[in-house]
Model the fold of this input.
Amino acid sequence: MGEIDFANIFRDFKDIIDVAVVSFVLYKLIIMIRGTRAVQLLQGIIIIIIATALSSQLELRAFNWLLDMTLTTFFFAIPVVFQPELRRALEQLGRGSFFRRSNQDITMMDRTINEIVKASTSLAKNKIGGLVVIEGESGLNDFTEAGTSLGSDISSELLINIFIPNTPLHDGAVIIRKDKILAAACYLPLSENPFISKALGTRHRAGIGISENSDALAVIISEETGQISVAKSGQLYKDLDEKSLRDKLTKHMVVKKIKTSFWPRRSTKNG
Done:
């Protein structure tokens, strides 16, 4: 019977830990940049890397040299281009939250859901338009920075007041993170899905657009019909009652599901 090679076992164990740590850090970084402009930049860099490898294999020397120079420039520009994401990562590392899963207190989430449902049903009853975006795992800082920063505790009264017509903040979206209203009067990317009904206005297209570009959920109140809709992963769920809205919010905020795709499918659905 041969002796157990503890040195090799220990080396293999260290390799497993090494790969696991690197994978976890990359996962956290990917989650951090989802829903920001950095995603599109990262896609461009990946395309250039693939094109560089292909041009090398095909011996396209001039094209390969051009791509190499472009990549070199990109790597020098990364600290500038990804400055908001790098800053956020360092802040989370300093708070010790980078290496732990972000779990909200159930009581806090229930209160947040109750306030959103209460505000949404009140706005719908009075046919006052509104757009409330609840952040998911991916950050929405690109959109909050363009709006009016609030950082307020969430309350149905505040949400209702924000959307009262002809007030300074009523135009645009409110963005919520956990139990805080981060910003109001935020402008969101409009969906370019050609299959969306032309009867839907800018508010609905903005809600669908943000759900296509991130894992956020958008609650949309129509000022024409008073209907409540929810946009999630590019899908639109229309004419929701109070219970259906609460179920959608609970599933989004309480039931944590890790998504593996950067780009949610784009479709419109009633329900």
In short: Residues 256-271 have pLDDT under 50 and may be disordered.
